[in-house]
Each structure stands twice: as structure tokens, then as C-alpha cells.
Design goal:
This protein has about 160 residues and is an alpha+beta fold. Helices cover about 20% and strands about 30% of the residues.
Length: about 160
């Protein structure tokens, strides 16, 4: 069974790729965002552990994209999740996102992006790994541009049977 194999390479790659946004967010929390770097983070709002206000949850029942660029504060990054305070319609709100809820991560300033395929623990009802939302939840001057460049899709690492 794939779940019993300690060398389940698809799982190992998923876990390794999820470390990229974790490390990038740690740098941003510690040092701020250098130069033109900014992050688009798309996540499943229905994933267990996602913390949103009732108003944001009603507005984004499935997925949400946040942009970390100029107007964010109190970014805290742990092993399993990150939290950040953002402004939505003039109101400051705290957002808590488990890394397992991420669908996509992009840094347009570096022309880099990742899309995440849901693991077996999140695949049921998660809707797959689509591209980042075209409507970012937090508008910035760069929010109207699509992330471009080197996008690594984990599906290319999966073994093809039959």
C-alpha cells in the first residue's frame, strides 16, 4: 500500500516542496521582504485548522488568495502553519493557515511559483490543485498580474502506473 511505504516518494516530495513557502515566510517574518519579492498564497479555506473571521469565511467558502507585500503585520511562522494580520476592506483581520491547506505559492518578484497537489489526507473534497486565484483577497499594486516563471507542479514527480 502506498501509505505504508516509508519511501513513498510522492509524499516525500510533497513535504519537501511545502517547506519552500515555510522557509520563505520565515525569512519574511525575520527580515521583511527584500527588493521586489512578494508572496501570493492560495489556500483551501475549508481545510481543518484554517482560522478566518466569519465574514471572510462566508466571502471565501472554498479558496482564498492572500498577498503579502507592503501591508501585512505580525507574521508568525510555525512548523505546521503561519498566521498574519491583513487589512480587508479597511479592517485588520488575523488569518491562520496550516501549510497543508496551501494550494499554491508564488513570488512574482522572483518569477517563482509552486502548485500543491493535495495529499491523501486532504484530497477528499479538496478540489485538486488549481492555479492561484485570479482575484487576490488583498489588493496591492501588483495584485493584478499573474505569477509567472518557473512553476513546479508536483504531478510531474508522480509515478505513472500502467
Amino acid at each position: 500500500m502506498p501509505g505504508d511505504d516509508p519511501l513513498d516518494y510522492a509524499r516525500l516530495v510533497r513535504e519537501a516542496l511545502r517547506d519552500v513557502p515555510r522557509q520563505a515566510l520565515r525569512v519574511a517574518a525575520r527580515e521583511g521582504l527584500p527588493g521586489e519579492h512578494h508572496f501570493y498564497l492560495t489556500f483551501r479555506t475549508s481545510h481543518p485548522g484554517v482560522g478566518l473571521s466569519p465574514g471572510l469565511r462566508a466571502r471565501y467558502p472554498d479558496r482564498m488568495t492572500i498577498v503579502l507585500q507592503h501591508q501585512f503585520r505580525d507574521l508568525a511562522v510555525g512548523e505546521d502553519a503561519f498566521s498574519v494580520t491583513l487589512r480587508f476592506g479597511g479592517v485588520l483581520e488575523r488569518v491562520h493557515v496550516p501549510f497543508a491547506a496551501l494550494v499554491a505559492f508564488a513570488d512574482p518578484g522572483a518569477k517563482f511559483g509552486l502548485q500543491f497537489e493535495p495529499g491523501p489526507e486532504t484530497a477528499a473534497g479538496a478540489g485538486g490543485a488549481d492555479a492561484p486565484s485570479a482575484e487576490p483577497a488583498l489588493a496591492t499594486e501588483a495584485a493584478t498580474t499573474e505569477p509567472a516563471g518557473n512553476v513546479v507542479d508536483i504531478r510531474s514527480f508522480r509515478r505513472r502506473d500502467g
